[in-house]
Structures are given as C-alpha cells and as structure tokens.
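Ticket #4471: structure export looks truncated?
Reporter: QA, pipeline team
Priority: medium

Steps to reproduce: submit the single chain below to the structure queue and open the exported record.
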Amino acid sequence: MEVKELGHLVLYVRNLDRSVAFYRDVLGWRMIGPDLAGVPFRAAAFSAPSNRTHHELLLIEVGEDAAALPRGRRVGLYHFGLKVGTTDDELREALAKVQHAGVTIVGTSDHTVTHSLYVLDPDGNEIELYIDVPGMDWAQHPELVLSPSRPLHL
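Actual output as written to the record:
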C-alpha cells in the first residue's frame, strides 16, 4: 500500500454552529452541507475552494459538556496546517482577519520553508496558517523542512 495524499480531517466540536462560523466565516472554507442526510448526529462538511476532494474537513458536534483537550505534552494531534497563500502579504491578510474576528493567536514562526501563524479554533484545536516561502526548494533540500524555527515578524 502507498498513501497518495492526506484526504480529510475530522474534528469533534462542542457547538457546531460556533465552529461552522469559525471555519466558514473566518477561515473561508466552503461548506458542503450542514444537514447530512441520514446522519444521526449534527455534523458539517467543508471543502477548500479548489474542490480537490469531496470533503477535507468534517465537524461532528459532541456537546458543550465534552472534555477539553489536555494542555501540555500529550499524545495526539498537535496542530494541522492550512496553506493560505504564497506571499507574506497573504499571511498578513490572514493575521488581520483572525485578529478582527477575535481569534486566539498562539504564535508565529519562520520555519525557513514556511512562514506560519498559529491560532486556536473555538474548541482549542491549534491550526497553523502558513505560506510556502518562495524560492525555498525543499524537494531538493529536504533537510530544510526541519530547520530550527526563528521569530517571524509580519
């Protein structure tokens, strides 16, 4: 077997309406449908504007009383990355949009091959919003992918 690509991500969320507003209105995902016929729970599916696949993100509501993600060192998802463009200007636009929406920003980093902004969704899932740095040939120099992080000044 050979994995061809990362297909989709599924997240449990406390409040579907709040999470839909974040992923659709703040991050700009295209919602495929809030009412998935035959599904015995509340869920919403999203795809990026590229229409690369049937869905890239699925949110499943589990209720306000669901346990929070534990903080600190733990096993499991650390964050997932979403490419928001190809220039620092586009990353600055993303920063302005999440700031305007009151989204929690937990950091920025220059990873040599990417410039990244880290934010939290309404349930505390960390998301990396990034751009690939023009001219960085990570395919020919894969060691660049694990370059030490440096401060990013947007």
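Status: closed, not a bug. The export was complete when the record was re-opened. Leaving a note from the reviewer for reference: The domain at 79-146 is CATH 3.10.180.10 (2,3-Dihydroxybiphenyl 1,2-Dioxygenase; domain 1).
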